[in-house]
Design brief:
The complex is a heterodimer of chains A (220) and B (216). With 220 residues, chain A is α/β, with parallel strands linked by helices. Chain A has a domain of 151 residues: Glutaconate Coenzyme A-transferase (3-Layer(aba) Sandwich). Helix content of chain A is 18%, strand content 29%. The longest helix of chain A has 12 residues. Chain B is 15% helix and 28% strand. Chain B starts with a helix and ends with a strand. Chain B has a single domain, classed as 3-Layer(aba) Sandwich (Glutaconate Coenzyme A-transferase), CATH 3.40.1080. In chain B, helix 4 links the parallel strand 12 and strand 13. Chain B is α/β, with parallel strands linked by helices and 216 residues long. The longest helix of chain B is centred in the N-terminal third of the chain and has 10 residues. The chains are: A alpha/beta (220), B alpha/beta (216). At the A-B interface, helix 4 and helix 5 of A face helix 2 and helix 3 of B.
């Protein structure tokens, strides 16, 4: 049985390549894995498709990859706090797919749950419905929103055990547990990594089988 | 009273004891300051918790509001992931959402997430909130900075959601959608019906009970 999930931060590099898709946990940087993002930046990979709630600020969270022009496409709910994303979008340097936040969460949940998509009333009667199938049940219109997956998910947890079981802290949970299901390789940066059994099983928020690699953040 | 405080004060009167409320960034965050002492609401923050409170003392790690700013939490707070957060929002478990608007129209349509060619921040959680909350209260200044109407016959900007607005609070007036019709129910202190008419492009009716706002 393979139990050694903890790796050095630099060992993430063999899972990185140009043109890959990356889901990143976090909400305006809170709950984003800073160390892994720095490693991706240092690795120099480009033409990335990034998927996450927002592009944070130009010098915060995932925003640093946008600022360094490593991103080809972003699928997100909000870019308003990162003027660089907006500038690159208007200049035609980056493609931005804006998705309502709740729809983004469900598309990712579906991608990791064996579901092809979800029906949501959000976006009906707006630009969001363009090009999408609309279905009506009991007099309510719904959009068909398709599942999302990625090559890699990069997540932030507060505590991990060596099996990969995760506990998040406060508002840093956000998209992290959903993305843990929805990528081919899941790398987690944790504030601390403890022995199996040290996390109360009732308090595990993401089961360890979903996690491929653990990196100690050194933060607390 | 300045415009923002007046609007916040009036919207506070719409909230009932026990309500679960999501407040947008900016003006709506002033609303809790104006709640009567016997009205206790639970604030939902779409980044993943119920029980948001004002920041008291030093910020705690990983405790931020949906604007990314450090905030507080009340005893009994619950944190959850974004799917749960939006299940709560879309599923009708939020009693009221209060958010700003660029334009609102007489059909209850709201536009507040982009200005084509100028400002495209994205919708964030606004489309889900406006779609799913039981009450959608738009809290905004009555006119644009150059005096243009924001309450229109038909929104010109891309919509956030269609036909979901339940009330509009401005520094001049309070409107409610009643049976699908936009109704002026209150005027701000010292504001005439003529002034409101002049600054509103939408068709609306004046309630027979229309009266001056009672502000604390």
């Amino acid at each position: 049985m393979h139990t050694e999930k903890q790796i050095e931060r630099s060992a993430i590099r063999k899972h990185l390549h140009d043109g890959m898709s990356i889901m990143f946990g976090g909400f305006l940087g809170s709950g984003s894995p800073k160390g892994i993002i720095q490693e991706i930046l240092d690795a120099g990979i480009k033409d990335l498709t990034i998927i996450g709630n927002d592009t944070a600020m130009p010098d915060t969270g995932i925003g640093v990859l946008v600022s360094a022009k490593r991103v080809k496409k972003v699928i997100t709910s909000h870019i308003g706090t990162n003027a660089e994303t907006g500038r690159q979008m208007i200049a035609g340097e980056i493609e931005v797919e804006l998705v309502p936040q709740g729809t983004l969460a469900e598309r990712i949940r579906c991608g990791g749950s064996g579901l092809g998509g979800v029906l949501t009333p959000t976006g009906v009667g707006t630009l969001v419905e363009e090009g999408k199938t609309k279905l009506s049940f009991d007099g309510v219109d719904y959009l068909v929103e398709r599942a999302l997956r990625a090559d890699l998910a990069i997540l932030k947890a507060h505590i991990a055990d060596e099996k990969g079981n995760l506990v998040y802290r406060r508002a840093a949970r956000n998209f992290n547990p959903l993305m843990a299901l929805a990528a081919d390789f899941v790398a987690v940066e944790a504030d601390s990594i403890v022995a199996p059994g040290e996390i109360d099983p009732d308090l595990v928020m993401t089961p360890g089988i979903l996690v491929d690699a653990l990196i100690l953040s050194g933060e607390c | 009273m300045d415009a923002k405080k007046l609007i916040a004060s009036r919207v506070a009167q719409e909230l009932k004891d026990g309500d679960v409320v999501n407040l947008g960034i900016g003006l709506p965050t002033l609303i809790p300051d104006y709640l009567p002492t016997d009205v206790h609401i639970t604030l939902q923050s779409e980044n993943g918790f119920l029980g948001m409170g004002p920041l008291e003392g030093e910020p705690l790690p990983d405790l931020v509001n949906a604007g990314g700013k450090a905030c507080g939490m009340v005893p009994g707070t619950a944190f959850f992931d974004s799917a749960m957060s939006f299940a709560i929002i879309r599923g009708g478990h939020v009693d009221a959402t209060v958010l700003g608007g660029l334009q609102v129209d007489q059909e209850g349509n709201l536009a507040n997430w982009m200005v084509p060619g100028k400002m495209i921040p994205g919708m964030g959680g606004a489309m889900d909130l406006v779609t799913g909350a039981k009450q959608v209260i738009v809290a905004m200044e009555h006119a644009t900075k150059d005096g243009g109407a924001k309450i229109l016959k038909r929104c010109e900007l891309p919509l956030t959601a269609a036909g979901k607005v339940t009330a509009i609070a401005t520094e001049l007036a309070f409107f409610r959608f009643i049976d699908g019709q936009l109704v002026l129910t209150e005027t701000a202190p010292g504001v005439s019906l003529d002034e409101i008419r002049a600054k509103t492009a939408a068709d609306y009716v004046v309630s027979p009970d229309c009266h001056a706002m009672k502000l604390s």
